[in-house]
Design brief:
- This protein is 27% helix and 26% strand.
- By secondary structure, the chain is of the alpha/beta class.
- Strands 3, 4, 5, 8, 9, 16 and 17 form a seven-stranded mixed beta sheet that branches. The chain has a six-stranded parallel beta sheet with strand order 12-11-10-13-14-15, sandwiched between helices. A two-stranded antiparallel ribbon has the order 1-2.
- α9 links the parallel β14 (255-258) and β15 (279-282).
- α4 (143-156) packs across α10.
């Protein structure tokens, strides 16, 4: 079957791989229709993705069709359109037993630790599929990246009316803004790409914006918040420079959430951190319950995914265009692969 394989950093190959086996108990065989390209894929292509080995079939933002189900699967049927929850947790470790399967000690993320969806068909646990009779495959492929932002906002317990700063207007930052707006927060975007800043304000209704290229961030935040500074700050950049600078932005008693990550060390000034009694959080993946909630929000029209998709390509030519998707000047918000 047709497959796009990342053999090593910077080298994607369009090739043929073996057909999957029939689904076993608790499994489903799916046909891949759409694959969203995310920061994880781009970092893997650039050789900068933690928890990663090569060769690997990328792809975990998926719009899928159920072809067959194994024994014991009752919530799905042939022909169902589904979003995939790509975080395959063990269900037995301390995190899973406490309802924190998103940070399972034995986590296997589809498209990262195991082969993903940049291929025509594959088998995955049926419990990781979330069906919708209303959404199309492109909408379903965007449920997973939206869930990352939804989980981060829930983790920080964002309240209506509070000032929330989101650093980085890539897809994960956009998802975080989407759900902070949904909560009724006063959202501030910080980025260095003016086109992405305009997208946030026009498409997501973000009230305030700071361009870090030519504005003093601390002064701008103080002006927006009446001197208080934001009470919740989300860094979605995956940039060590940005993540370390972000300790200066929260209000006293505020929260700092790292949604992005990078393969290295983060350092900060302890007195600056301690005197404000900041809460520092990591936010990883999302929870199963986030998926039906997001599907319902898209079905009801409260979230519009259409503006997100700026670039499209068929699977057989992705190897030729993928490198261009990694460059900010091409204006990519979300690239979508069609199979």
């Amino acid at each position: 079957m047709k497959t796009l394989l990342l053999e090593e950093p910077g080298h994607l190959v369009f090739t043929d791989t073996a057909e999957p086996l029939n689904p076993g108990p608790g499994e489903a065989l799916v046909r891949v229709h759409r694959v969203g390209v995310c920061g994880t894929d781009i970092h893997a292509f650039g050789g900068k993705q933690p928890f990663f080995s090569y060769p690997r079939i990328l792809g975990h933002e998926l719009g899928l069709e159920v072809i067959a189900v194994g024994d014991g699967v009752s919530h799905l049927k042939t022909g169902d359109r589904c979003a995939a929850e790509p975080y395959v947790n063990c269900q037995e470790c301390i995190a899973c037993r406490r309802g924190r399967g998103n940070c399972c000690t034995n986590m296997q993320v589809i498209g990262v630790h195991t082969d993903g969806g940049m291929r025509e068909r594959f088998v995955l646990p049926a419990r990781k599929l979330h069906a919708s009779s209303k959404l199309n495959y492109e909408q379903l492929a965007l449920v997973e990246p939206l869930s990352i932002g939804a989980h981060a906002v829930e983790r920080a317990q964002v309240d209506a009316g509070e000032f929330v700063l989101v650093i980085g207007a890539g897809p994960i930052g956009l998802a975080t803004m989407q759900f902070a707006v949904e909560k009724g927060a006063q959202v501030i975007v910080l980025d260095i790409n003016e086109a992405r800043i305009e997208f946030c304000q026009k498409q997501l209704g973000v009230q305030h914006a700071i361009n870090g290229t030519h504005e003093n961030v601390i002064h701008a935040l103080a002006a927006i918040t009446g001197g208080d500074m934001p009470t919740a700050v989300f860094d979605a950049t995956g940039s060590p420079k940005s993540m370390m600078a972000s300790f200066d932005y929260p209000a006293h008693g505020g929260r700092l959430v790292f949604v992005g990550l990078f393969p290295g060390e983060v350092t900060f000034n302890d007195p600056n951190f301690h005197k404000r009694e900041l809460t520092l959080m990591g936010s990883r993946n999302s929870h199963p319950a986030d998926f039906p909630r997001i599907i319902s929000l898209i079905e009801s029209g409260r979230i519009d995914t259409a503006p997100w998709i700026t670039h499209r390509s068929e699977l057989d030519v992705v190897a030729d265009v993928f490198d261009s998707w990694t460059r900010p000047e091409t204006g990519v918000i979300k690239a979508m692969i069609e199979l």
